[in-house]
Amino acid sequence: MSTKRTSLQTRIARHIAFAVVLSLVASALVLVVFRHRSVQRNMERSAQTYTSMVCDPLVTIIDFWGSSGKAILDQEVAQLRGLNADVNRLEIVNVRGNVLFRSEGHSLVVYGDGVNSPIIEDRDLSRAIAGLEPSTSVVREPTGERVYRVVAPIVNQFGAHHFSLVATFSYADVDRQLRNSLWLSALILAMGLGLTQWVSMMLARGITRDVERLREGVQRIQEGHLEERVSVNSRDEIEELAEAFNVMADELLATIQRLREANRELETLDQTKADLVANVSHELKTPLTALRGYLELMTDGELGGLPEEALRAAMICRKNVQRLSLRVEELVQLSRFERYMTLDSAREEVDLSAVLEGVIDTFSPRLEESGIEIEVHVDTALDPLQLNPEQVERVFFNVLDNAVKFTPQGGAIVVIAEEIVRNEQTGVQVSIRDEGVGIPRSELVRIFDRFHQVDPSSRRRFGGMGLGLSLVRSIVEAHRGSVWAESTEGSGSVFYVWFPRLEQSTDRTDQTGPSVRLETAGAGKRVSEEG
Amino acid sequence: MARVFVVDDEPDMVDLLATILKADGFEVETDTDGRSALARMLADPPDLVLLDLMMPDLDGMELLKLLRLDTKGADVPVLVVSARSGHQDQLGTLQLGANAYICKPFSPRELVRQVRQLLGATGGEQPRG
Question: Whole-model pTM?
Answer without folding.
Answer: 0.45
